[in-house]
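Below is how a single chain appears once it has passed through the pipeline. First comes the sequence as given, then the structure the pipeline wrote out for it. We keep one example in the README because the format questions we get most often are answered faster by looking than by reading.
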Amino acid sequence: MGKAYVSEFTNFMNQYLEAHPEVVAEQRSGWESFWKRKAELRAPEKTRDDLAPDDSYGYAWSAWRVKAQGEKKS
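Resulting structure:
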């Protein structure tokens, strides 16, 4: 059997990554910083505390309008 087809771009990237191993190391460190985070156990509580009241329309328009105009919420 003959060799499998490899595109020009794949050849270029393979050669580039061989010549520049620091790129692979940088990618790996970026991956680890994103995926290997420690879990923040208080995050759900903080999110719940930071939520604006829902106006059932979906955009909390009444809460924004009351705050912007200085009216009292009825």
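The two ends are 79 Å apart (CA to CA).

See the next section for the split statistics.
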